Amino acid sequence: MSLEAYGVETPDVVREPADDRHDTDLKACPECGTVVGEPNTLKLDAPDVVDDVEIDTLVTRARKCDRHAYDVLLPVRVRRGAPSLGRSWTTVRVRLADQRVRPVAVPKSQVTRQ
Ligand SMILES: [Zn+2]
After folding, report:
1. Over the stretch 23-59, which tens digit does the pLDDT of each residue have?
2. Residue 51 Cα, ligand 1 centroid: separation in angstroms?
3. Side by side, which strands form the sheet with 13-14?
């Protein structure tokens, strides 16, 4: 049962995907080792954005592990500006659960630079 059933709002845990031990083409959840499949377009709740930007909703390309009481979201690794995702995407820097700051892809239409 998820904590939300008790009215507790748990922020998403945002982490870098781990490489699967057996097949480096697969990505795994760094918390439990489960293979997490292909990325989807997902919303991050209350991300720790360190850039000075306004974002209505941080939508990104990410995998999700749902074997936890909270959502573990694993944004795809991108370079700054997310050139691999095409021209409608950019990046903002987000502090992940391990305290490292990484670029996270976000549609350009969602971001207002200050
Ligand atoms: Zn997991």
Report:
1. 888 999 999 999 999 999 999 988 999 999 988 789 9
2. 28
3. 13-14, 72-75, 58-65, 40-44
